[in-house]
Design goal:
Length: about 170
């Protein structure tokens, strides 16, 4: 079932596996419970804008992922005062904060950005830098959270899974 969910087993119909998993909310997995929570979005332009900002500002100053997320979300704080009139400030304001952060981490994983750890006063913060992958030769598709869809919630109470596994309900 896991291979079908990940797309590695083309012979198994993944929709029927989702339905089978969702038959019992107590034992349903997170993948099946949240399958309609995300939508695929082309984020190539947003990624180019992020890489452009990192190239412009992070090469001469030290900014962490969270600082850059705040910049793109349009936060009003001391660190972002000099960016208020730039095109980067608030560029991703309509997005969910978690999605913006996930997009930055996706760019790090894909090599467009990297984190550089600089130890100072025994604290190892990681600062953003440009990565080794500098060309956007193909579209970047991102799983953005879909706030309009309702999340199916499990009715499982803490500890009830173990009770269910050892004493399943009789039919």
């Amino acid at each position: 079932m896991i291979l079908a969910v990940l797309g590695s087993s083309p012979t198994i119909d993944s929709d029927s596996l989702f339905d089978q998993c969702l038959q019992n909310n107590i034992t349903a997995c997170d993948n099946c419970l949240r399958r309609h929570q995300f939508k695929e979005v082309d984020v190539t332009d947003q990624c180019k804008k992020i890489v452009e900002a990192v190239k412009k500002y992070c090469s001469e100053d030290r900014y962490t992922v969270l600082m850059m997320v705040e910049l793109f979300k349009g936060a009003q704080n001391k660190r972002n005062k000099k960016f208020v009139n730039t095109s980067y400030h608030g560029y991703l304001k309509p997005w969910d904060r978690n999605d913006v952060e996930r997009l930055f981490h996706r760019l790090i994983l894909d090599g467009y950005l990297k984190e550089e750890i600089i130890i100072s006063y025994k604290i190892p913060p990681s600062y953003l830098r440009l990565g080794y992958n500098t060309f956007f030769d193909q579209k970047i598709i991102f799983q953005q959270s879909n706030a309009k869809k309702k999340i199916i919630k499990s009715n499982m109470k803490p500890g009830s899974l173990w009770k269910y596994l050892y004493h399943p309900p009789s039919k």
